[in-house]
Design brief:
By secondary structure, the protein is mainly α. It has helices at 2-11, 35-40, 45-54, 80-90, 104-109, 117-139, 142-147, 152-180, 202-217, 233-245, 247-251, 256-268, 308-314, 339-342, 405-417, 424-438, 455-466, 472-478, 512-517; strands at 95-97, 292-296, 335-337, 355-356, 376-377, 400-404.
């Protein structure tokens, strides 16, 4: 299943060579084959659907280098998962990159500006994805399907595809809300492509994402019933749970009841179970994992990119680390853990603390220019469960899990402890499932009372379980620890000892380039 989906993504390149610059964020994809020709034949629809999914993984239509979707940044840097990871993890206590590429040191320290190439790349990647989804949805209206005589099972499939693309668009709008706030352009398939988009606001964007997910919830395939790598109802439930969990940050509203309800829907679906070994979730054959709810698919032969998990495996290996131990031909020597994050693992029995210490210092006296400053921490691997390497030693087979069962457990626990609906005893059980797996079945990591799960325990546990999975900045914001000085880490604010960040740094700036292109937009406060 996995490789079929990926190959379809490449087939789509023949149909939709897409515009590489989205300065007005409302352009149609450009094609030598007109939409009328492309969509006249239902056989093409799945290939276009695959391109919408591939937008989360690939950087262009010709592999890792050729015709990039996004300009003004190295193509290898510009994949959705890679840029999202850098914004969500490098800006926090989890990791720092020792490279000095333009914009990276500023992500490390929280000193980014509206001209930072990484924040720009994420902004354009998000809205490129939204524009691509909008174009697909413009062509799959009920009226257009009827005019093309799409009927029977083809019609039913077309409507399923439409629901999946609405989910993908909601996912990107969620990232826009989380990263840039509500002051972003808003465009749908019904928007005029002749006019510059107008900005929305946090409350309206939150309500839109919520309403879209509730509509498609009933239309998507049952949990586990879709092809691997495609969204089903559980993916929509997980995104709703995450949206509600952060509602206080986004719109100043308590939505913990709703977050716990949707986390419980995922858990009760019965299709998912924790892997026995934590590390197996992040290996080259994780497409077989029953823990992953929705993943971005990568394949060393058919989906080649210098972003995604190719980046996550290679960039975390350096110094005296043996690349063969991670199924790759060589490391890039980039990412190391901060000493503050190392301290989140006081018990060496916790199998999630996969630190490499030989030749490394725990302290990080240098931010750039020395991989040895800070412990190595390689969570993702290009090895399979049987210890054989993936199909290619450069391009990695490992999929990136956007949602998995342990996060549903932790969402339920947090929502419950914050006064949301649910059962405290069940929340304790869920937390101990995560902890028990982390300690390889040993009960020494388990909590005996829900009262022991304080806010500090919750945020630390989420860090231990979900690091390197694009959640850390969002979680720290929710717990009031990302900005300000209540919790500092090495190089926060540009100081080795860490200093507080101004509150406006909770979200990233609108790129200057888009402010210049669209006079309807205004910069986020503080930038």
């Amino acid at each position: 299943m996995k490789k079929i989906i990926i190959k379809l993504a490449l087939v789509t390149a023949a149909f939709m060579p897409l515009t590489s610059c989205l300065k007005d964020l409302n352009q149609k994809p450009i094609s030598d084959i007109t939409s009328a020709n492309l969509y006249e034949n239902f056989a093409n629809y799945k290939a276009v659907l695959a391109k919408c999914y591939a937008g989360l993984a690939t950087t262009g239509n010709q592999g890792p280098a050729g015709k990039p979707d996004i300009q003004d940044i190295d193509e290898g840097f510009s994949s959705y998962v890679r840029v999202l990871w850098c914004m969500q993890e490098l800006s926090t206590d989890v990791a720092k990159c020792q490279w000095s590429d333009a914009g990276l040191p500023e992500l490390n320290t929280g000193n980014w500006s509206a001209n930072n190439v990484w924040t720009q790349a994420m902004y354009y990647r998000v809205f490129y994805q939204i524009a691509m989804c909008n174009e697909f949805l413009r062509e799959l209206t009920d009226a257009k399907l009827a005019s093309r005589n799409i009927t029977g099972t083809d019609l039913a499939d077309a409507k399923k595809y439409r629901s999946e693309v609405r989910f993908l668009r909601a996912l990107s709008y969620y990232h826009a809300l989380d990263l840039f706030g509500g002051n972003v352009p808003f465009i749908t398939e019904e928007s005029s492509t002749a006019d510059l988009p107008k900005p929305t606001n946090a409350a309206d964007l939150f309500a839109y994402i919520e309403s879209e997910l509730k509509v498609v919830e009933a239309e998507l395939a049952e949990p586990g019933a879709n092809e691997y790598g495609r969204a089903d109802r559980a993916a929509a439930w997980m995104l709703l749970s995450k949206l509600y969990l952060n509602a206080n940050v986004y719109i100043g509203a308590n939505k913990y009841n709703e977050s716990s309800v949707y986390a419980k829907k995922v858990i009760d679906a019965g299709n998912y179970s924790l892997e026995t070994n934590y590390a197996d979730v992040f290996k080259a054959d994780n497409n077989n994992s029953k823990e992953i709810i929705f993943a971005v698919n990568f394949d060393g032969i058919h989906t080649r990119t210098y972003g995604g998990t190719t980046f996550l495996v290679h960039a975390c290996v350096g110094g005296k680390m043996n690349p063969n131990d991670y199924g790759i031909g060589g490391g890039w020597g980039g990412m190391r853990a901060t000493p503050e994050f190392v301290d989140k693992f006081p018990n060496t029995s916790d199998t999630r603390g996969m630190f490499f210490t030989t030749g490394q210092t725990k302290a990080m006296p240098k931010l750039t220019g020395s991989f040895e400053a800070g412990y190595g921490l390689a969570k993702f691997s290009n090895l399979r469960k049987d210890s054989t390497a993936g199909a290619d030693l450069t391009f990695v087979d490992t999929d990136f899990p956007l949602f998995r069962l342990s996060e549903a457990y932790l969402n339920y626990v947090e929502a419950n402890t914050r006064g949301g609906a649910g059962d405290a005893g069940l929340a304790l059980t869920y937390m101990n499932k995560v902890r028990n797996r982390a300690y390889a079945g040993n009960t020494i990591g388990e909590y005996t009372s829900i009262a022991d799960i304080t806010d500090d325990e919750l945020i630390d546990e989420r860090g231990r379980e979900l690091y390197h999975e694009c959640t850390r900045r969002t979680d720290l914001r929710r717990f009031g620890k990302f900005t300000g000085a209540s919790y500092n880490w090495s190089w926060k604010g540009g100081s080795q000892v860490g200093v507080g960040l101004s509150e406006f740094k909770g979200i990233f700036p609108i790129p200057t380039s888009d402010l210049n292109a669209n006079t309807n937009l205004k910069q986020n406060t503080g930038y």
